[in-house]
Amino acid sequence: MCLALVPVLLSSHVRITRHPAEDEEPVWSPDGTTFAFVTDREGGEDVYVMNVDGTSSTRITESGTEWDPEWSPAGGHIVLRSLRDGNDEVYVMNADGSGQIVLADHPSDDYGPRWSPDGSQIAFVSTRDGNEEIYLMSHEGRATVRLTEHGAADSEPEWAPDGSQLAFVSNRTGTHQIFLMRADGSGVKRLSRHAAVTYWDPDWSPDGSRIAFSSRRGGNWDIYVMNPDGSGERRLTEHPAGDLSPRWSPDSAAISFVSWRDGNAEVYVTESKPAVQEADTE
User: Fold this and answer.
1) HSE, side-chain direction, 13 A CA sphere, residue 127
2) Which of 28, 36, 113, 160 could disulfide-pair with 69, CB 3.0 to 4.6 Å?
3) Mean pLDDT by 10 residues, the chain (282 residues)
4) Are 165 and 211 in contact (CB under 8 A)?
5) In sequence order, what are the residues at sequence separation of 6 or more whose Cβ sits closer than 8 angstroms to the Cβ of residue 75?
6) Where does residue 257 fall: left (phi above 0), alpha (psi -120 to 50 degrees), or beta otherwise?
């Protein structure tokens, strides 16, 4: 291992939410004006929407058991994970919370839904075949296809902007690492390059140039970015508290994340600018 000067993103971190509840899983709307996020402000975990500056928050689900919101590419719908029927299932609803219907209805757990860039398909995680695997279904919940088939746990699917590939997390090499596969499940290869370190939360920038992720590489959870081929890992946040759940803005200029740096889970946004810093390379 050696030290090299590489470009990194040193950012100012702007706090968006200020509430004693736990505010988590922020996701930008396609037009960049709104966040969907999960919070327990009313006791259970529900999906809310708010302006990107944190104002005008509105609750749009009411079961108290909702997670993993994801906007459709056109912005008219939100897909999510719900425990309202006793097990994790994938639901879809209009962006205002109306018209909620179940898409993946199975006795096993289905969760982690992610729309394809063209809106025609949804990748998700299911335990229906005995362990965590990644599946694909139509946006109407039909034509389910299994993409991964491995004894390890495969989860956290994330589409490339052109829809040709998915990044995902797997512990098939021992620790949780980020892998890449084609949209049909073929061509699996590992992207992350530190085998002894845990990686999580991959999110592809809309311009296709970088993948953001969470990692404990520095001893605690921080936000990092890397190139789509796994090279050039750069730390974006550095704080003793946990920083997780990075999500790119639609213009690829900012990243939202969740941090416990102020005592509870709150939503933050980075405003990034180029800089140079020492980083270790292998």
Assistant:
1) 10
2) 36
3) 35 89 98 98 97 97 97 98 96 98 94 98 97 97 96 97 98 96 98 93 97 92 95 92 96 96 95 44 46
4) no
5) 29, 30, 31, 95
6) beta
Question: What's the gap between Cα 111 and its chain centre?
Answer: 12
- 63 sits in the region (left: phi over 0; alpha: psi -120 to 50; else beta) called alpha
- Determine the straight-line distance between the first and last CA of the chain, rounded to whole angstroms: 5
2: CB partners within 8 A, 6+ apart:
280, 281
Q: 2-281 is classed in which CATH architecture?
A: 6 Propeller (2.120)
How many separate helices (H) and strands (E) can be counted in the chain?
Answer: 0, 24
Instruction: Provide the residue ranges of all domains of the chain, joining segments of one domain with +.
Output: 2-281
Q: How many CA atoms lie within 13 A of 47 on its CB side?
A: 28
Run of H or E residues at 6 = strand 2-15
Give the integer Cα–Cα distance in Å for 35 and 48.
8
Q: For the chain, how many residues are written? A: 282
pTM above 0.85, yes or no: yes
Q: Which DSSP string do the residues of 126-194 spell out, in sequence order?
A: E-TTSS-EEEEEETTS-S-EE----SS-EEEEEE-TTSSEEEEEE-TTSS-EEEEEETTS-S-EE----
For residue 5, the model assigns a pLDDT of 29
Q: Using CB atoms within 10 A of its CB, is residue 267 exposed (0-12), middle (13-18) or buried (19+)? A: buried
What is the C-alpha separation between 270 and 248, in angstroms, rounded? 10
Helix (H, G, I), strand (E, B) or coil at 62: coil
